[in-house]
Amino acid sequence: MGYTVTEEATRDYKAKCTITYTDQNETASVSIGADYGVALSTVDRLVGEGKDSAADYTNTHDSVTPTGLHLNDLPFIAMIALAILGITGYIMIKSRKMKRCN
């Protein structure tokens, strides 16, 4: 009795598999890995009779936290700047009218 497990290739993910099996009352472990965006397969592994048979997959994703400003934020920044300019202009016009009246 055996198994084959294939981890599909996914961009930005690195797959690793640790296979643990019992062979003649002795537990052994094999690690296989693939680079980013490469599929990984266990290729016809036999299931041992012992309790310690397992295939543990780990997928690692190295992500970069976005920082700074993006072009998607530009409309909101422009609206805030426009509002600040409008309020500043309104205050300046009102203060000049008040000075003329005095």
Q: What does this protein look like?
A:
With 102 residues, the protein is an alpha+beta fold. It has two domains: 2-61; 71-101. The chain is built from one helix and seven strands, in the order βββββββα. The chain has one helix at residues 74-101, and strands spanning 2-3, 6-7, 13-23, 26-33, 40-41, 45-46, 54-61. The strands form three sheets. The protein has a three-stranded antiparallel beta sheet with strand order 4-3-7, with no helix packed on it. Strands 1-6 form a two-stranded antiparallel sheet. A hairpin with a 2-residue loop joins strand 3 (13-23) and strand 4 (26-33). The longest helix is centred in the last third of the chain and has 28 residues, at 74-101. The protein is rod-shaped, with a radius of gyration of 32 Å. The termini are far apart.
Provide mean pLDDT, rounded: 81
Distance between the termini: 99 Å
Tally the structural domains. 2
Low-confidence parts lasting 5 or more residues at pLDDT below 50? none
Structural class: alpha+beta
Q: Estimate the helix proportion, in percent.
A: 25-40%
- Rounded Rg: 32 Å
Number of strands: 7
Tell me the major beta sheet. Answer: 3 strands, antiparallel
Query: Hey, roughly how much beta strand do the residues contain?
Result: 25-35%
> Treating each run of at least 4 consecutive H or I residues as one helix, how many helices?
1
Strand order of the largest sheet: 4-3-7
Give the SSE order as H and E letters.
EEEEEEEH
**Shape call:** rod-shaped
